[in-house]
Fold this protein.
Amino acid sequence: MIKELAHASKTVAAQIYVVFQRSYQIEADLIGTSEFPPLLRSSDDIANAESTFYGFFEQDSLAAVVEITCDGKQLSIESLTVDPGHFRKGIASKLIDYVLPHSDFSHAVVETAAVNQPAIALYEKHGFVVFKKWTPDHGIEKVALQRE
């Protein structure tokens, strides 16, 4: 089941934080870095975010989270994380399939690490195409994908 998360609640923010930490640690390992910016995000940062969070629940357990912002023209997927205990179940695709038709936008964008081939393949499967590559100050090469 997918539902919007009341992330301003400290309890809900803490649940999101746990999924983020477990999932982003896998991505950090894939990238080969111990200093991965998403791992520095606190539960207070999550609670204070101005974005919208949706969670996928499996047997009353938060299995995955997608975080979006939408200004009416652009939908940005700020984060999409699946708890490692729920990998390979198609949950990330279900979240993408949920947020895209439920949002009013002319195009959607998402960023990920350039070496994160599983994420890139997931987004390409949903019609996203790479339109930009760059290396920010933290030194991890990134790609941006968009979908019209």
Summary: The beta strands are 2-5, 52-58, 61-70, 74-82, 107-113, 129-134, 142-147. The helical segments are 10-31, 43-47, 91-99, 117-125.
